[in-house]
Amino acid sequence: MTIRGNIRRNLKSMIEEKEIWKNTEYLGYDVSNYGRVRSTIRYVKHSKGGVKIINERILKTSINKKGYEGATFSIEGKFYYISIHRLVALAFIPNLKNKPQINHIDKNTANNHYKNLEWCTAWENQRHSSFIVEQYDLNGKLLNSFRNAKEAGFILGFAWQSIQKVCRGNWKQNKGYVFKYVK
For 20-37, how does the pLDDT look when each residue is reduced to its tens digit (9 = 90+)? Predict the structure, then answer.
């Protein structure tokens, strides 16, 4: 089955499933099985002596330079950027073997649904991320095939991270070329 087929199947199962919220290890924030984060209603001391009520809201997220989605939390006046996939895994996926990393099963780092995540070792994560990259022109004509994004970047003189962003769907093209992962 293709990556696109896996994504469609995962999206269909996610749509049929109810969104569940769980507390995070960060006081005042919850995470859902869909990979959304919200702040809970809380009371904060105001700088002028009163108490300020902060209402519940869904947090805006951003994509870091490695392509992972994260959110900024304010905890006791300090700001922290935390990856969404880690919050979801900690809340919804048992880590029975104490594996340190989290893998996106469909290789789409924007898909933080708990069914798309699994605990893994660094070796397992690296092994999972290595797959063939194909280079196309903007008309869809296949030009080259490479063992992985690093090889494509080295041969073409492009940043391999940029090639990964196109393959993952974060970018539409890079330097006039489209890159796609092949399973």
Answer: 999 988 878 999 999 999
